[in-house]
Amino acid sequence: MSFSIGDLGKATGTKVETIRFYEKSGLLPAPARTAGNYRTYDREHLNRLSFIRRARDLGFSLDQVKALLSLSDDKDRSCLGVDEIAKAHLIEVERKIADLTALHTELSRLITQCSCGTIADCRIIESLSPA
Amino acid sequence: MSFSIGDLGKATGTKVETIRFYEKSGLLPAPARTAGNYRTYDREHLNRLSFIRRARDLGFSLDQVKALLSLSDDKDRSCLGVDEIAKAHLIEVERKIADLTALHTELSRLITQCSCGTIADCRIIESLSPA
DNA sequence: TATAGACCCTGTAGCTACTATAGGGTCAAG
DNA sequence: CTTGACCCTATAGTAGCTACAGGGTCTATA
């Protein structure tokens, strides 16, 4: 079984340009070419791209995905490295949630205070303006 | 009272490059220059930059900040436009929190499942790999 | 007066993770 | 033999800065 880049894109929900971008970024190995210089992918590539997509959907950065891919190649190795990357990412996600939650509180407060009159007595503008 | 770009930066916690970037982006008006071609800012600039920083801290995009600034100039106008921008931003923040919370659930689940043995039986790698 | 150091200037390239062109080549169907 | 769908490379754009390179200006001190 071999796929064109378009087939691979459809199979994984990835744009063609993104696949080429992953190749240039070193996430996806450069595949063989046809006589007409078209890329041809096999099941290995499909698996690897699926892995990349899932990891990206979980919010891992490209560098983290690269690290996860290379760790996943060595089956006998300890998975401590994987755990470390995942935990670091989890902490980052927690940090973002905390930041956004604080932001949400602040924004809600401002919006409910606004009585929707004129700019002159708008609480949103007021709280953005210096004292 | 007039400030150099460095003074303005210190007063607002903004890097000099960022101030020049805001000027080029149309957020901050181009100030007067000294004989030696240095930018000189006054209190008006300081107020405007403070406004920008607060709005940015609240997560508004540069385009939103630009809109808020131009709305804030017309004191007699209704503040409905301001309210609209703030509410749109709030919804966006809520969406991000929801996304990150879902991600957090998923990541936590993966990490707790990992018994930290070898890659071969790592649940994190397993759940990233295709069936 | 000379010079060191802190500051300022413009312009450009870099970062993430793509996306969107421009300007071409390849291939199968009608 | 031509149309249309697909593919190719290379480059520029997105947000919001940040970091140079390669210069000029200003002030304090020897």
Structural description of this entry:
- 2 copies of one chain form a homodimer.
- Chain A is mainly alpha-helical.
- Chain A has 2 domains: 77 residues, Multidrug-efflux Transporter Regulator, Chain: A, Domain 2 (Orthogonal Bundle); 53 residues.
- Chain A has 6 helices and 2 strands.
- A two-stranded antiparallel ribbon of chain A has the order 1-2.
- In chain A, strand 1 and strand 2 form a beta hairpin.
- Chain A is elongated.
- The termini of chain A are far apart.
- The mean pLDDT of chain A is 94.
- The interface between A and B is large, with 51 and 50 residues.
- Chain B binds a DNA duplex (30 and 30 nucleotides) through helix 2.
- Chains A, B: InterPro entries: DNA-bd_dom_put_sf, MerR-type_HTH_dom, MerR_fam, Tscrpt_reg_MerR_DNA-bd.
- Chains A, B: Keywords: DNA-binding, Transcription, Transcription regulation.
- Chains A, B: This is Helix-turn-helix domain-containing protein.
Query: How much beta of chain A, percentage-wise?
Result: under 5%
What coarse outline of chain A follows from CA principal-axis ratios?
elongated
Class of secondary structure makeup of chain A: mainly alpha
* N- to C-terminal distance of chain A: 68 Å
Pfam family, one (chains A, B): MerR
Protein name (chains A, B): Helix-turn-helix domain-containing protein
Domain HTH merR-type (chains A, B): 1-71
InterPro entries (chains A, B): DNA-bd_dom_put_sf, MerR-type_HTH_dom, MerR_fam, Tscrpt_reg_MerR_DNA-bd
SSE map:
The structure is a homodimer of 131-residue chains.
Chain A: H1 5-12, H2 16-24, E1 32-33, E2 39-40, H3 43-57, H4 62-72, H5 80-113, H6 123-128
Antiparallel strand pairs in A: 1-2
Helix pairs in contact in A: 3-4
The structure holds a DNA duplex (30 and 30 nucleotides).
